[in-house]
Amino acid sequence: ATFKVGYFVGSLAKDSINRKLSQALIKVAPDTLEFTEIPIKDLPLYSYDYDADYPPEGRALKDAIAASDAILYVSPEYNRSIPGALKNAIDWGSRPWGQNAFARKPSAIIGASIGGIGTAVMQSSMRSVLSFLDSPQLNAPEAYIHFRPEDYGPDGECTNPSTREFLATFMREFEAFIQRVHASAPGHIG
Ligand code: FNR
To answer: Which domain of life does the protein's organism represent (predicted)?
Structure first.
């Protein structure tokens, strides 16, 4: 089967290393995964005042999540937590109450930082959020990427063989996880 993966890049920076990482991941992912970025940069800051009538950006976000069989988060760590822009997008997707778009969507988290901690603290915050949103998460392998610019080409392809193999394994395991979730609850996705 083929699965549609909607992915979030948690950074708005034009030279984002996490955007590069997303490109590297897509290049090494199994052919059975199709990727569509879910944009977050034009979303207003969420408030429940919008619940009665979501603006087009909010609707587009919810539709994109609904159309995805699985969600991939590729995000930096900002101040030991989830970047505000990404958290805002998640808040949009989770509402109105009772219409949480993330429920039962299989998900995976990965991130790159310039420091050695590799977004570990952000990922642990994300795991709490995804648990609350009832989104099953790939638990292993974990992927904390210490980003070295020399390991990536201009289109984001990873040129370091061992990092490249690590990223490929992560995506293979994600695909297997999506298949397992799908097999156990076929009505919910696909
Ligand atoms: C950072 N950075 C950072 N790195 C980290 O490992 N842990 C952290 O808590 C933070 N905090 C933080 C806060 C803010 C506001 C910024 C701008 C940066 C550094 C971060 O890893 C680096 O800027 C990356 O380049 C961010 O990824 P993107 O945005 O390039 O994808």
So the answer is: Bacteria
CA distance 185 to 17: 35
* Domain range enclosing 175: 3-184
ipTM score assigned to the predicted complex: 0.99
Q: How many structural domains compose the chain? A: 1
Q: Is residue 190 part of a domain?
A: no
Q: Which residues pair with 45 in a beta bridge?
A: none
Supply the residue whose CA is at minimum distance from atom 12 of ligand 1. Answer: 78
87 belongs to a structural domain: yes
What's the gap in Å between 44 CA and the centre of ligand 1? 22
Instruction: Please state the atom number of ligand 1 nearest to the C-alpha of residue 113.
Output: 21
What proportions of the chain, in percent to the nearest 5, are helix, strand and coil? Answer: 40, 15, 45
Probe ligand 1: pick from 8, 21, 114, 146, max atoms within 8 Å of CB?
114
CATH code where residue 113 lies: 3.40.50.360
**188 pLDDT more than 70:** no
Per-residue pLDDT reduced to its tens digit, 86-115: 999 999 999 999 999 999 999 999 999 998
Residue 189 lies in a domain: no
